[in-house]
C-alpha cells in the first residue's frame, strides 16, 4: 500500500494534493482523517489500542508525529524499562512484540518511504532515537524483538536510510576535526555520508550501549548462538560507519570471545543450534558480522584468516553431525564460500575481498576433509540437497580437483538404493557429464558397464535412461559416439534380458534420431553398416534387422508427389533413398533371403533329430522362438520392399517359397509364407509383375492342394486374379473381377483344391469358382449359354467319373476309405453346381415363369390385409390371398392389379410395423419373410421416373428384384439361358442326380443324398418327367385301362426312392402350381389326374406296405409329407363332390360318380374347392 505521511502542519490546513491528517498530526494512510484521542493510564492502553487499530487497517497509518501514539508508547515503555517493571505489564510486552515491531517495519522498509515529505522523515528519525534509548535500557536483558529492531534501525540498506543517505550528520558535521576516539561512528563517504545513521550509532554509544554490549560478552552469562547473533548482527550491518577505536575497544575483545565459545560447544549443543539455525542462519551471521568488523581494523589479516579457517571448521562440524536442515545450511555456507572464491575477480568492494581463502585452497580443503564423501552419505533422496551438492562438484571439476575415486564415490552413493536416490544421482551425473574430462567420462562409462552386469531389471532401465540422457544436446558428437558405443556393447551382453536389450536399442535409435550433431547422417550410416555386418556374420540377426528398420524409419517418407527423377533437397534424405543405398551397397534383400534359407536349413536338421519339437519352444538364439525368427525376417523383407520401393525378384521369391512353403519344417512356416506372399500381392504389389505368371505356374500351382490353409487360399486367390488380370482374362470393374476369357490360368488347380483340400478350403475354392464363372465380361456375355453348358458338362463329367469309381469299388476296408473320399468329392462338386445355379438365379432380375421345383408348388395359404392410410377418413383396405412359396414382388403386383393401376411410373411401397419392406427383397419367398397369416401391411402409392420426383420417405426408384413395370411379363428367353433351366431340359442330368441321391441312400451318406436333392430343388422340374406325368394322366383319363402308357402306380412304386420322391414333388407342383392353380393348364391336369385313378393311387400309397418299404427314413418322411398334401387335396375334392351329389346339385345330364374304389369319376374339377381350402 502506498503511504503518505504529514507532520508539523496545522490539522486543518495542509498543502494541496496531500492526504488528510488526524487532529493530532499523526501519520495517516491515504483517506484517513479520524479523530484520535484517549487517556493515559500507567501504560497508555488507549494509545496502544489506537495504534493497533491504525496499523492493522487495510490502508494502514503509523502515527509518528510528536506526542502521537507511537512516541507516547515509546516513552511509556522507556519509563517502565528504566524502573524494571516492564515485564509486569502484559500490554507493554505485547507492544514490544507487535505494535512496535510492525510500526518500525513499515516506516523503515516500506516502498512508500520514498513518497514521504522531509518533515515526516524527521519525525521518524526522532522515533528511531526513542527506540535506540529503549534498546539500550533493555540491552542487558537480551530482548530479541528489540534487538531485531536495532538491526533494522542500524541497517544502511533499509529503505529509510537509503532514501536519507545524503543527509549530513549532526554529531559529525562536515569539515569538523573531531578525532575518531571521540566518536563512535563517522560518515564513511562524504558523497553519501548517511548522517542520520551515524547520529543514531553515536546516540547508541553515548547512552552506553557499546559498553553494555562488551560487558555482556565479557560476563559470558547465558550466552547462546541466537543471543550472540542478535547482539552482533546490528553492528555487522553498519560496520562501515563505526570508527576503528570503537571496534578495537568494544568489538575486538568480543572477537576473541565468540570463536572460543562456539568452538567449545559440544556436538549435541551444536546439533541443537543447527536445528534452530534452519530459520535464522545464526552461525553464518555471527561469523560474517565478526569478519566485517575485523576488516575495519588495520593489520588484522591473520585474524581474518583464522576466522575463515574457523568458519570452514564449523561448516565441517555441521556437515558431520547435523540433521537434514543443519546439513542444508552447511551446504549453503559451502556454496557461499565457493561463490566468493569463484568470482573473486568480479568483486570490487574492499570489504568483500578475500585475500587468504582462494578457489585453490577451498578445493584443497574440500578434498582434505572429504567433504564430498560426507555429503554423499545421506539425504540424497532430497532433490534440493542434491542441487546444493551439484554446485560443490561443479566447483571441484572447475578447479580440476575431481578424482576418479570421487566419481566412484558418487556412483556408489546410488547403487542399490531407493529409486528416488537413484533418480537424483542420475540427474546429477547427467548434468555434470558435459563438464567431465575424457578420462573421467571413460571412467564413468566403465562404472556403467560394471553395474550393468550386476543390476536388476529395474536398475538397468534406470541406467539406460541415464545413458540416453548423456547424449542429449551433443553438438560435437563426442558424447553421442561414446554413449552409442556403450549401448551397443550393453545390448550385445548375453546375460541381459530381451526386454532390456530392446530398451537399449530403442535408446540407441533415439540418440541417433535426436542428435544435434552436424554429422548425424554419417553416424546413422555407420551404425547401419554395423548392423549389416552382424547380418553377414549370421550373429545377432534379429536385433540387427530391427535396428536397421528403426534407423531407416527415422528418415521421413518422400512426399506423395515426389518423383523418382526429382533431386531431393540438399541435406535431406528420404527413407527410400537410404534403403536403396543399402540395397545397392550390400544387396540387402538377397542377404536376408539367404539368411532365412540358412536358418531354415539348420532348423530342418534339428527337426529331423528330434521330430517332436514344438516350434514355439525352439529358441536358437536364447531370445526369440522359431515362429518369431521366421516372421521377423519376412517382416523385414517386406519393409525393405515397401518402404524402399523395391521389387522382389524371381530368385529370392522362389527361394523363400521353397524353404517355407514347399519344404516347410512346421505348419506355421508355411502359414507365415502364405501370409507374407498375400501381403506382397496387396493393392500395391511388391513382387515384380513380370515374374508373377512364372512364379504362379511354377511354384504356387505345383503345391499340394491339401497343404493349403485359409491364408494359403487367400494367397492363391490374389495371385490367380493378378496373373489373369495381367493376361487380360479377368477385368477389374468396381472392385469385382469379370471373366472375359474362360481359359483361365490356374482354374484346374482351383478344381484340385475343391476336390483335395480340407472342407473349409474347398468352400473357399468353390466360392472362387462361383465368383469367377458367374461374373462374365463383355466378351462372354453373348455366349452365356455356351459358358453354362461347358461348366455344367465339366461338373457332370467329374461327377460321372467319381460315380463310376464308387460303383466298381469292393466293400473292403481300403475301398470304404476310397468310397468316402470319392463321395466327399462328389458332394463338393454338387455344392459347386448348387452355388453356381443359385448365384445365376439370384442375378436374374426379372420374374420367373419357370420356377425351381422347391417353390413351384403352392405353399401354406396366407391372408394379408393391405391398408392404405387416407388423411381425414377411414383407410382403404385390400385383402390379399397368397401363400408361403409366393414372392414379395407378387404381392406388390397383386395390390397394383386390385387397384387397377396401369400407370408406368407408379409403384407401391409396403411397410411392416412402420418399417419399409425393401424392394431388394421382392425376389424372396414369403416363407423367408417375417410375415404371418392375418397380418396387416401398410401401403402407399408413389410416383417414380425422370419427370416426377419420388416421395421424400419412399424407397429407391427402381428395384433389382422386380420388373420395371408391374404388367410386364417374364423374360422367357433370358430365363431359358439360366443353368438351372438348361439342366431341367436335359433328362440325363436329372436322372444322374437321382442316381447320386440313391447312392447316398444306399451308402447311408446323408450329405451326398441331401446335396443331390438340394440341387434338384433349385432346378425347375425336369421337362421329361413333367411331360410324362401329363401324358399318363391324359391317356388314362381318356381311355382308362386300355391305355398303352405306364400306369400311375409305376411312377410311385419304383425301385428308386429318389425317383419316387422326385415324381411326387413334380406331381404336386402340377396339381397345385405356385403361380395360378386356376389356370386352364392346371385345371386340365387336375381333372385328368382325378379321372386316371389319382384317389386310389393316394390311398394305395398310404395303405400298401410296398411303398418305399426299404428306403431310408429321411427319404420316406419327405415322400409321405408330399403324399399327405396330395391326400388332403384329393380327399377334400372327393368330399366336396359327395356333398354336391347328396345336395342334388349334380344335374341329370348324365353326370355320374363311381365308387371310391376306382373307375371313372365324372365330377367337377378339384380346383373349385381347393382354391378355398388352405393347403399345407
3D architecture notes:
By secondary structure, this protein is mainly alpha-helical. It is about 60% helix and about 5% strand. The protein has 48 helices and seven strands. It has a five-stranded mixed β-sheet, with helices on one face. A two-stranded antiparallel sheet has the order 1-2. Helix 25 (about 540-555) packs parallel to helix 28. The longest helix is centred in the last third of the chain and has 31 residues, at about 815-845. This is ubiquitinyl hydrolase 1.
Summed up, the helix count is: 48
Distance N to C terminus: 103 Å
As a percent range, the share of strand residues is: under 5%
Number of DSSP E strands: 7
Principal-axes geometry comes out as: elongated
Q: Find the structural class using helix and strand composition.
A: mainly alpha
For the biggest sheet, the summary is: 5 strands, mixed
Helical fraction: 55-70%
Determine the mean pLDDT. 83
Low-confidence regions: 1-41, 345-354, 946-967, 1146-1164, 1167-1176
Using only CA atoms, what is the Rg? 56 Å
Strand order of the largest sheet: 4-3-7-5-6
Brief descriptors of the model:
single chain, 1176 residues, mainly alpha, five-stranded mixed beta sheet, two-stranded antiparallel sheet, 7 strands, 58% helix, elongated, disordered N terminus, disordered C terminus
Amino acid at each position: 500500500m502506498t503511504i503518505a505521511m504529514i507532520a508539523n502542519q496545522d490539522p486543518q490546513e495542509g498543502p494541496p494534493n496531500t492526504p488528510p491528517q488526524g487532529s493530532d498530526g499523526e501519520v495517516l494512510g491515504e483517506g484517513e482523517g479520524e479523530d484520535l484521542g484517549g487517556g493515559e493510564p500507567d501504560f497508555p492502553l488507549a494509545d496502544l489500542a489506537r495504534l493497533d487499530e491504525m496499523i492493522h487497517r487495510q490502508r494502514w497509518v503509523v502515527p509518528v508525529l510528536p506526542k502521537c501514539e507511537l512516541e507516547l508508547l515509546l516513552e511509556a515503555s522507556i519509563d517502565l524499562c528504566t524502573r524494571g517493571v516492564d515485564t509486569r505489564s502484559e500490554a507493554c510486552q505485547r507492544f514490544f512484540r507487535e505494535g512496535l515491531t510492525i510500526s518500525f517495519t513499515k516506516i523503515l522498509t516500506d516502498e512508500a518511504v520514498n513518497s514521504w515529505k522531509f518533515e515526516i522523515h524527521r519525525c521518524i528519525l526522532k522515533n528511531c532515537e526513542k527506540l535506540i534509548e529503549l534498546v539500550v535500557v533493555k540491552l542487558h536483558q537480551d530482548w530479541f524483538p528489540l534487538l531485531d529492531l536495532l538491526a533494522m534501525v542500524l541497517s544502511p540498506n533499509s529503505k529509510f536510510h537509503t532514501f536519507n543517505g545524503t543527509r549530513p550528520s549532526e554529531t559529525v558535521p562536515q569539515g569538523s576535526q573531531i578525532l575518531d576516539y571521540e566518536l563512535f561512528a563517522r560518515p564513511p563517504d562524504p558523497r553519501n555520508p548517511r548522517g542520520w545513521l551515524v547520529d543514531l550509532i553515536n546516540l547508541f554509544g553515548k547512552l552506553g550501549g557499546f559498553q553494555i554490549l562488551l560487558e555482556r560478552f565479557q560476563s559470558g552469562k547465558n550466552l547462546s548462538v541466537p543471543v550472540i547473533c542478535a547482539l552482533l548482527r546490528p553492528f555487522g550491518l553498519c560496520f562501515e560507519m563505526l570508527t576503528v577505536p570503537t571496534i578495537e575497544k568494544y568489538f575486538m575483545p568480543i572477537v576473541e570471545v565468540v570463536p572460543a565459545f562456539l568452538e567449545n560447544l559440544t556436538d549435541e549443543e551444536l546439533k541443537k543450534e543447527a536445528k534452530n539455525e534452519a530459520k535464522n542462519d545464526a552461525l553464518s551471521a555471527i561469523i560474517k558480522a565478526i569478519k566485517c568488523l575485523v576488516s575495519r581494523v588495520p593489520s588484522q589479516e591473520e585474524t581474518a584468516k583464522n576466522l575463515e579457517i574457523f568458519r570452514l571448521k564449523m561448516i565441517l562440524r555441521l556437515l558431520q553431525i547435523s540433521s537434514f536442515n543443519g546439513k542444508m545450511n552447511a551446504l549453503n555456507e559451502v556454496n557461499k564460500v565457493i561463490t566468493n572464491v569463484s568470482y573473486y575477480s568480479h568483486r570490487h568492494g574492499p570489504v568483500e575481498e578475500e585475500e587468504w581463502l582462494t578457489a585453490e585452497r577451498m578445493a584443497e580443503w574440500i578434498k582434505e576433509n572429504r567433504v564430498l564423501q560426507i555429503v554423499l552419505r545421506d539425504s540424497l533422496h532430497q532433490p534440493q540437497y542434491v542441487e546444493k551438492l551439484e554446485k560443490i562438484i561443479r566447483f571441484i571439476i572447475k578447479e580440476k580437483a575431481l578424482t576418479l575415486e570421487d566419481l566412484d564415490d558418487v556412483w556408489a552413493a546410488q547403487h542399490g538404493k531407493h529409486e528416488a536416490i537413484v533418480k537424483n544421482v542420475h540427474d546429477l551425473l547427467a548434468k555434470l557429464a558435459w563438464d567431465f574430462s575424457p578420462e573421467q567420462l571413460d571412467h564413468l562409462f566403465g562404472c556403467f558397464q560394471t553395474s550393468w552386469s550386476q543390476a536388476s531389471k529395474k536398475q538397468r532401465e534406470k541406467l539406460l535412461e541415464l545413458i540416453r540422457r548423456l547424449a542429449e544436446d551433443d553438438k560435437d558428437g563426442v558424447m553421442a559416439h561414446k554413449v552409442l558405443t556403450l549401448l551397443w556393447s550393453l545390448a550385445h551382453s548375453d546375460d541381459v534380458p530381451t526386454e532390456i536389450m530392446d530398451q537399449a536399442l530403442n535408446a540407441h535409435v533415439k540418440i541417433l534420431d535426436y542428435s544435434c550433431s552436424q554429422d548425424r547422417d554419417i553416424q546413422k550410416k555407420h551404425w547401419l553398416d554395423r548392423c549389416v555386418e552382424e547380418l553377414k556374420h549370421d550373429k545377432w540377426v534379429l536385433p540387427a534387422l530391427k535396428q536397421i528398420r528403426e534407423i531407416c524409419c527415422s528418415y521421413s517418407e518422400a512426399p506423395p508427389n515426389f518423383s523418382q527423377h526429382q533431386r531431393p533437397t540438399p541435406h535431406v534424405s528420404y527413407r527410400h533413398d537410404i534403403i536403396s543405398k543399402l540395397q545397392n551397397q550390400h544387396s540387402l534383400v538377397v542377404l536376408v533371403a539367404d539368411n532365412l534359407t540358412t536358418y531354415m536349413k539348420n532348423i530342418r536338421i534339428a527337426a529331423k533329430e528330434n521330430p517332436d519339437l514344438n516350434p514355439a519352444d525352439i529358441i536358437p538364439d536364447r531370445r526369440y522362438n522359431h515362429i518369431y525368427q521366421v516372421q521377423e525376417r519376412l517382416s523385414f523383407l517386406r519393409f525393405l520392399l515397401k518402404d524402399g520401393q523395391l521389387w522382389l525378384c524371381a530368385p529370392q521369391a522362389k527361394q523363400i517359397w521353397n524353404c517355407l512353403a514347399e519344404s516347410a519344417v512346421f505348419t506355421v512356416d508355411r502359414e507365415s509364407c502364405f501370409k507374407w506372399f498375400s501381403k506382397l500381392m496387396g493393392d500395391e504389389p511388391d513382387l515384380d509383375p513380370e515374374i508373377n505368371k512364372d512364379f504362379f505356374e511354377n511354384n504356387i500351382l505345383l503345391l499340394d492342394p491339401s497343404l493349403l490353409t485359409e491364408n494359403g487360399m487367400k494367397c492363391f486367390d490374389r495371385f490367380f486374379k493378378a496373373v489373369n488380370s495381367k493376361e487380360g482374362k479377368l477385368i477389374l470393374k468396381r472392385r469385382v473381377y469379370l471373366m472375359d476369357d474362360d481359359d483361365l490360368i490356374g482354374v484346374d488347380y482351383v478344381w484340385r483344391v475343391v476336390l483335395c483340400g480340407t472342407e473349409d478350403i474347398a468352400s473357399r475354392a468353390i466360392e472362387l469358382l462361383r465368383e469367377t464363372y458367374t461374373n462374365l465380361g463383355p466378351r462372354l456375355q453373348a455366349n452365356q449359354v455356351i459358358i453354362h453348358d461347358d461348366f455344367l458338362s465339366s461338373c457332370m463329367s467329374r461327377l460321372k467319373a467319381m460315380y463310376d469309381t464308387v460303383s466298381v469299388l469292393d466293400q473292403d476296408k481300403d475301398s470304404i476309405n476310397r468310397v468316402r473320399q470319392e463321395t466327399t468329392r462328389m458332394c463338393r462338386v454338387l455344392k459347386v453346381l448348387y452355388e453356381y445355379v443359385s448365384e445365376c438365379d439370384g442375378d436374374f432380375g426379372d420374374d420367373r415363369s419357370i420356377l425351381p421345383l422347391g417353390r413351384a408348388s403352392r405353399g401354406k395359404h396366407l391372408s394379408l390385409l393391405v391398408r392404405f392410410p387416407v388423411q381425414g377418413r377411414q383407410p382403404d383396405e385390400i385383402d390379399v390371398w397368397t401363400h408361403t412359396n409366393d414372392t414379395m414382388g407378387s404381392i406388390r403386383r397383386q395390390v397394383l392389379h386390385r387397384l387397377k393401376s396401369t400407370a408406368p411410373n407408379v409403384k407401391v411401397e409396403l411397410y411392416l410395423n412402420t418399417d419399409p419392406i425393401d424392394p431388394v427383397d421382392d425376389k424372396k419367398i414369403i416363407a423367408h419373410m417375417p410375415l404371418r397369416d392375418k397380418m396387416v401391411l401398410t401401403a402407399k402409392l408413389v410416383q417414380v421416373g425422370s419427370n416426377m420426383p419420388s416421395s421424400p420417405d419412399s424407397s429407391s426408384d427402381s428395384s433389382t428384384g422386380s420388373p420395371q413395370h408391374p404388367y410386364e411379363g417374364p423374360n422367357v428367353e433370358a430365363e431359358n439361358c439360366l443353368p438351372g433351366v438348361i439342366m431341367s431340359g436335359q433328362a440325363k442330368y436329372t436322372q444322374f442326380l437321382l442316381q447320386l441321391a440313391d447312392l447316398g441312400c444306399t451308402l447311408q451318406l446323408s450329405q451326398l443324398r441331401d446335396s443331390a436333392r438340394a440341387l434338384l430343388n433349385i432346378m425347375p422340374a425336369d421337362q421329361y418327367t413333367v411331360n410324362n406325368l401329363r401324358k399318363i394322366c391324359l391317356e388314362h383319363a381318356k381311355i382308362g385301362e386300355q391305355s398303352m402308357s405306364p400306369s400311375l402306380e409305376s411312377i410311385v412304386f419304383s425301385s428308386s426312392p429318389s425317383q419316387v420322391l422326385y415324381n411326387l414333388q413334380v406331381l404336386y407342383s402340377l396339381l397345385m402350381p405356385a403361380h395360378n392353380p386356376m389356370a386352364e393348364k392346371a385345371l386340365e391336369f387336375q381333372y385328368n389326374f382325378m379321372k386316371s385313378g389319382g384317389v386310389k393311387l393316394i390311398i394305395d400309397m398310404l395303405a400298401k406296405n410296398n411303398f418305399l418299404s426299404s428306403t431310408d427314413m429321411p427319404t420316406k418322411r419327405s415322400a409321405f409329407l408330399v403324399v399327405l398334401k396330395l391326400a388332403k387335396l384329393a380327399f377334400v375334392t372327393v368330399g366336396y363332390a359327395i356333398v354336391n351329389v347328396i345336395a342334388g346339385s349334380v344335374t341329370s345330364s348324365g353326370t355320374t360318380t363311381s365308387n371310391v374304389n376306382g373307375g371313372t369319376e365324372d365330377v367337377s374339377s378339384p380346383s373349385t374347392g381347393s382354391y378355398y381350402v388352405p393347403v399345407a
